[in-house]
Amino acid sequence: MKPPATKADSFSQQQKLRATFWLGGLGLACLLSLILALLTGSISVSGYDLWQLIIDTLTLSSPSTSSNTLATTVMTELRLPRALSALVVGAELALAGCLMQVLLRNPLADPYVLGVSGGAAVGALFSIMSGLGAFWVSGSAFVGALTNLLLVFGLSHAKGVWSPSRLLLTGVVTAAGWGAVISFMLSIGEDNQLRGMLFWLMGDLSRASLPGWHGLFLLISLVISALLARPLNMMLRGELQAKALGVSVYPLQITLYLLASVLTASAVTQAGSVGFLGLVVPHILRLSLGSDHRLLLPATALAGACLLLLADTLARTLIAPQQLPVGVITAFIGVPVFLWVLQKSNRGLT
Question: Does 4 sit behind a cis peptide bond, omega within 30 degrees of 0 on the bond before it?
């Protein structure tokens, strides 16, 4: 049964202008961040080189003789795949965090709270210890994440009982178990493998390729999230009132859990455990934009994409030619910003 439309569900002209302003601004910020990522690095690339690459791509022609072949190769084969992966991973983590906060009714929930990253980490570290290639590392991480998804779902539904608190408790305990396994694997790993294992655990996009099906899944998830926006708004009034308005609460909760978990699994498969982004971005935007999910969900995805792309650009260039794990940069950026916004919001309540 489709929930009945209410006066609060319709966008006013002022709300439409506000949504256009925010989404347009965040979209422009993503574009500028992408351009910055393509131009910035240890090898110099000029704006003219980028413009010439765009012209050659649009006209479906081979690189012109006036273009810098080295610059073109660096942008198309190294920086562009990594930048696009950062956009997709950032959007997935931020969107998953926003959905998880609604599911668990906790504004401090993040995509990793139910142990998805722990299951993925165990799978990835096992492949690294076995000396397997990047394909197997990503595949093992995805399998580990899906294993955790099924495990938490099954344990939290024992005897048909379901509640956000039971799900959260099951996820936290499972995550602790994965953490113990990870510590054991790190303690027995060989010295020449530990650096790669630690980089993966801290979040690393250095081995990223074109996002491919990850990008397609993100687009599908955004469409599903847009369809869920009105029921999510009604859920904010409480389960009983949402049911009275025609929302099927239990199927909605299952959908949120599956969608957030698979989004997190997809992100972790590409970049490892990038911390803090899935917590900070949705929480800050919820404080800034309010809780209307018709605006909040797409804005969160765009902001997460922009933030991770900027963080990855810093990770590549801050101490070049060496690279930092991108998760370190997201923490350095996210922690002070989050504390500042939280302190500002607390002052507004006093």
Answer: no
Collapsed DSSP state (helix, strand, coil) of residue 249: helix
Would you say residue 44 lies in a domain? no
**CA 102 – CA 293 distance, rounded (Å):** 10
**Cα–Cα distance for residue pair 32/26, rounded to 1 Å:** 10
Task: Show the domain range for 306.
Answer: 84-349
CB 341 within 8 A of CB 282: no
Return the structure tokens found at 155.
């344990």
Query: Residue 321 falls within a domain, yes or no?
Result: yes
H or E element at residue 290? none
Instruction: Indicate the pTM of the whole model.
Output: 0.88
Among the listed residues 118, 113, 117, 120, the one whose alpha carbon sits nearest the alpha carbon of residue 168 = 113
CATH number at residue 307: 1.10.3470.10
- Total structural domains within the chain: 1
Look at residue 186 and tell me whether its pLDDT is greater than 60.
Answer: yes
Q: What is the CA radius of gyration of the chain?
A: 21
Is the pLDDT reported for residue 12 higher than 80?
no
Check: CB of residue 13 under 8 Å from CB of residue 6: no
| Euclidean distance between CA atoms 62 and 73, whole angstroms | 12
- Per the listing, tokens 């239990």 go with 250
Answer whether 123's CB lies under 8 Å from 142's CB.
Answer: yes
Q: Which residue has the tokens 């859920």?
A: 235
Alpha-carbon gap, residue 148 to 113, rounded angstroms: 12
pLDDT in tens, 290-324: 888 999 999 999 999 999 999 999 999 888 778 88
Q: Kindly state whether residue 32 falls inside one of the protein's structural domains.
A: no
Among 219, 175, 332, 200, smallest CA distance to 271 is for: 200
DSSP symbol at 157: T
Write out the DSSP string of 201-218: HH---TT----THHHHHH
- And the tokens for 190? 């060989």
Q: DSSP of 42-83, one letter per residue?
A: SS---HHHHHHHHHHHHTT-PPPTTS-HHHHHIIIIIIHHHH
Rounded-to-integer distance, Cα 312 and Cα 318, Å: 10
Confidence at 331, pLDDT banded by 50, 70, 90 = confident
Q: Is residue 109 part of a domain?
A: yes
